[in-house]
Write a structure and sequence with these properties.
Layout (H helix, E strand, L loop, with lengths): L1 E2 L2 E13 L5 E13 L1 E6 L4 E6 L10 H13 L4 E7 L9 H16 L6 H11 L12 E4 L4 E4 L8 E6 L6 H6 L10 H5 L15 H7 L1 H12 L4 E4 L6 E5 L14 E6 L1
Parallel strand pairs: 5-6
Antiparallel strand pairs: 1-4, 2-3, 3-7, 4-6, 7-8, 9-11, 9-12, 10-11
Length: 269
């Protein structure tokens, strides 16, 4: 079985408060985008993960894909498999690639071995793997609350818009980003903002991580400024960074004037 876990972007991200369990309550809208990893799952005598493509830092044993397999193996006696993960989604960039890979591993195991787990049950399992993982059980925009695991369907029509995604090559630690965050002031309801025309999002749809991340990494702030200079109707950092995206009504150029070192992708939503 070969499946294609997608990246996501955050449209607005409010950090509300720190919870007793150490996590933060957030509110955001997550949207899958057409940038994919490749995940191959094959029945095997022994569990093995082979990783190619973009390098993933850290010990392979900490990979969320293996964490997801162990969970579904322990709960449902799912068989051992050979997993080939080819990474294309940048890591440490706020695009959710690791979470997507883990969620799609659960989805793939469910299909490949006819485990007959419901969408709700898969989301519950995914929440045990990581906060963003439940989002990737469905392939649609969703509002996320709690620590990211409380999801509700949300109709968001950006068909025909162009997304310009820039990865400045800076790894932003999620833990560090949360440590520097200031909880959000009371603002207009996120759902209400997203129902407005995209042309009105610029001053209303805010990612709370930007203030602290931009202060620590001015280069990321410059990328956002450049996207607006290039004609973006709306631009924002995704998640806790470091990737930044812009929404354009017509196809923008693929090159960025901000730096020759930037990785830039243009895709149609």
């Amino acid at each position: 079985m070969i499946i294609f876990p997608p990246a996501k972007i955050n449209l607005g991200l409010k950090v509300m408060k720190k919870r007793p369990d150490g996590y933060h309550d957030i509110e955001t809208c997550m949207l899958p985008i057409p940038l994919f990893d490749v995940l191959e799952i094959l029945p095997a005598q022994h569990l093995k993960l082979v990783q190619t493509g973009n390098k993933i830092e850290g010990d392979q044993e900490g990979n969320l894909v293996l964490k997801a397999w162990r969970l579904i193996h322990e709960r449902y006696n799912a068989p051992k498999v050979l997993i080939h993960l080819q990474k294309h989604i940048p890591t440490g960039a706020g695009l959710g690639g690791g979470s997507a890979d883990a969620a799609y591993l659960l989805r793939g195991m469910n299909t490949l071995f006819s485990l007959q787990l419901s969408t709700k049950r898969l989301q519950e399992l995914a929440a045990e793997v990581g906060s963003d993982c439940p989002f990737f059980i469905k392939d649609a925009a969703q509002l996320a609350r709690g620590r990211g695991e409380i999801l509700s369907d949300f109709t968001l029509d950006l068909k025909g818009w162009y997304l310009k995604l820039i990865d400045p090559g800076i790894h932003v630690s999620t833990a560090q980003a949360y440590a520097s965050i200031k909880p959000a002031d009371v603002r207009q309801d996120l759902q209400s903002i997203l129902q407005l025309p995209v042309s009105q999002w610029k001053s209303l749809l805010i990612n709370d991580f930007e203030a602290s991340v931009f202060s620590a990494f001015p280069k990321i702030a410059q990328v956002k400024e450049q996207l607006y200079a290039d004609g973006a109707v709306y631009a924002s950092m995704s998640g806790s960074g470091s990737s930044v995206f812009g929404l354009f009504e017509s196809e923008p150029g693929n090159a960025s004037n901000a730096s020759d070192e930037l990785s830039c992708r243009v895709m149609q939503l």
